[in-house]
Amino acid sequence: MSASASSASDFNVAPILKYLSLPADHKPSPRDEPLEFLRDHLIQLPLELLRPFSTITTPRQRTQLLRIRNRRTTYACSAEGRKALSWVEARKEDSLAYEAFMISSTGTQGMPLAQDPTDPERAYRKGEEEGGEERKWVESSFMDGAKGHIGEGKLAALLGQFEEEREAERLRDMRREIREREQAQRESEPEEEEEEEEEGEESPTNPIYDSPGDARSSFERVIRDKFIDGLLEWMDYDTVDWDDRWDDDGRDDEDKWFDEEEES
């Protein structure tokens, strides 16, 4: 029996139906048709009866529910959400995705990285910097007045070149790992609907940005969209999907949905 099938069989519908005063044979069934059931009763159920639905539905599937999608949108626009979905947090959770995006969106061979998350605009090229440090060390310390004995700085240049080659090799390994991970993900994911495949084919490639700051802002927009679509693997969706404090009841749900579509 698969894990999902096991979760469905273990799902206890009795407390849910009792709370809502519904018969045992109610349709749609909370266990067999959870999305349809949630569409009808989500706002009526307390948190403790909603959490079990995470065992039989995925964040991606729950994106179909308008109220949950709007909760995620409200969260993403809040101060709490902006911090949780910032490029700093995203890089901590998935540094490979961050570095891959920065490489493709800055159009450079080197990889802009922040030396310190508290000073995000201090970008550098790691290989070139460390290569320069190797040259300076040899010229100022190791040689120490003995220039010319080993070819007038040739050793310094050689060590610097080695350091840059090590960094280039690291980048090649990283790109290979990215390709392997993407291939594995494609093979493990179930076949998407034709409409979704067409949308994916039409998606534009990452534009080239003049500065790391602009690229990071774009990366945060990508993270936000992935979160709303239920695709952010490291995010705890339960804290948003089942929490009614992220409901924006001051506006009609359909108005909010159409506004979001127009902005995108």
UniProtKB/TrEMBL annotation:
UniProt biased composition (Basic and acidic residues): 119-138, 179-188
Membrane-spanning intervals of the chain: none
- Return the Acidic residues bias intervals: 189-202
Identify the domain of life. Eukaryota
Concerning InterPro entries, the annotation shows:
Ccdc97-like (IPR018613)
Residue ranges for the region (Disordered) are 108-138, 179-217, 241-264
The identity of this protein, by name, is CCD97-like C-terminal domain-containing protein
Query: What is the species of this protein?
Result: Tulasnella calospora MUT 4182
